[in-house]
Design goal:
Blueprint: H1 2-40, H2 44-59, E1 63-69, E2 75-78, E3 93-95, H3 100-107, E4 111-113, E5 131-139, E6 142-151, H4 159-174
Antiparallel strand pairs: 1-2, 1-6, 2-3, 4-5, 5-6
Helix pairs in contact: 1-2, 1-4
């Protein structure tokens, strides 16, 4: 039994390492696609569409959006490359006040909410999401947009997802 237990522990550790390497490889692939898209085109809409598509395809995120503040400063508008958000149920213009995107715009910091139902202060009335992740796209110290992902599953995002989102947001700012 001891031998079998030891071998099971080794097999479990190898499976964990394999999952971690697979995830890192997927993240590297997404970053490479974003950098290649940014370097090969001056059309930001094309770069953003490719970025959102690569994240959706490679990382399996259910909902991905790129939100830009309006000149009035009280709402944000979703870029057409957005995937998975139901704009029939909620408008393409989302209020800044009381939303996670608004919080990121006001504070200029990324936001990771792995489980909104655990009593988080950031319950977003515009969505049924149970987990959210947002990263600001900064240009000259100013938030010019927010990259956001949502999932209806709690704990769908972790600090590794946040690290990837911050890196992609930085690449989008350069583009």
């Amino acid at each position: 039994l001891e031998t079998m237990t030891a071998q099971a522990a080794v097999a479990i550790e190898h499976a964990r390492l394999y999952d971690e390497v697979t995830r890192r490889l997927a993240e590297a692939k997404v970053l490479q696609e974003v950098m290649v898209a940014a370097a090969s085109s001056l059309d930001f809409d094309r770069v953003l569409t490719g970025t959102i598509g690569a994240l959706h395809r490679t990382m399996g995120y259910e909902r991905l959006g790129f939100f830009l503040p309006t000149p009035e400063g009280d709402t944000v508008v979703a870029h057409p490359a957005t995937i998975g958000f139901d704009f029939e149920a909620s408008p393409t213009r989302v209020p800044i006040e009381g939303t996670t995107v608004g919080w990121v715009i006001r504070h200029g910091k990324p936001l990771l909410l792995p489980n909104i139902s655990d009593g988080s202060d950031y319950g977003d009335p515009t969505t049924d999401a149970q987990a959210q992740i947002c990263a600001p796209v900064m240009l000259n110290g100013q938030v010019v947009a927010v990259l956001k992902a949502e999932s209806v599953r709690p704990n769908a995002f972790d600090h590794e997802n946040l690290r990837l989102f911050k890196a992609i947001a930085a690449e989008l700012a350069v583009a």
